[in-house]
Amino acid sequence: MTKLTPKSPKPNKGKSTVRSTVNRTTSIKQHITTEDRHRAFAREYVALAFNATQAAIAAGYSAATAASQGARLLRDAKVQAYVKEFSQAAVERAEVKAEDVVRRLNDMLMADPRDLVEVYVSACRHCHGVAHEYQYTLAEYNAKREKWLDAGKAPQDFPELGGVGYDANKPPVPECPECFGAGRPRAILKDTRTMPRGALALFAGAKEGKYGLEINVHSQLDVAEKLMRYHGLYKRDNEQQGGGSGVGHFELHFVDAPAREHDPRDGEGA
Length: 270
Prior knowledge:
Helix content is 43%, strand content 9%. It is mainly alpha-helical. The chain has 3 domains: 20-94, Arc Repressor Mutant, subunit A (Orthogonal Bundle); 97-112 and 190-242, no CATH class; 117-189, no CATH class. It has a two-stranded antiparallel ribbon. A two-stranded antiparallel sheet has the order 3-4.
């Protein structure tokens, strides 16, 4: 007698695959914790050059609320710790010590821009001339007078104007009818070979432009913000802890550098 074994019904492979995929996706989503999101945000924040909005999007937050989410996350103490952790790791990978970076930023912040370029305001050609007429330099006077005489003109007819002795280092004269005391400004570029360390850190390069040599410098306000972030000195952190409004801002108090010899602010020349 032949024994018949009933066949089991074949499962629907398509539906089973869909159900399995859905279950697996749900399981993965359930394992993404808040801490995972926070660490992902901190990692992307460092990788994306401290752009909180883009970091929030990369960490999986909605693009519509990424800006507000990023600002909120940056106020979280744990997120700040993660950012510091990832920042230190990035510095170590680059084989640069954090202390060296902070020291260079400090040099840039404390640098005097006048060690890079200065603007002198000197007297115009009429300030110190006789009767405020155009004043020659000695070389100009001699060249023009020689040319005048070579042309066969009478020496007594040579236009003396405001006389000889123009000195670009003299200060403007308020009574001058030509410049009205405003003088003639001129930029003085410093030699990079003799710049102080802070000025060299602030120096971002130079190029020949349409109107002459162009000097580029790093923004000291940007540098200040980076240092404030590093040291945790944002005023908003204190306001959050004290229940304040949480509006992020910081305060800087700059002290004037000591006056130099022939400083244009003194109104005196060399």
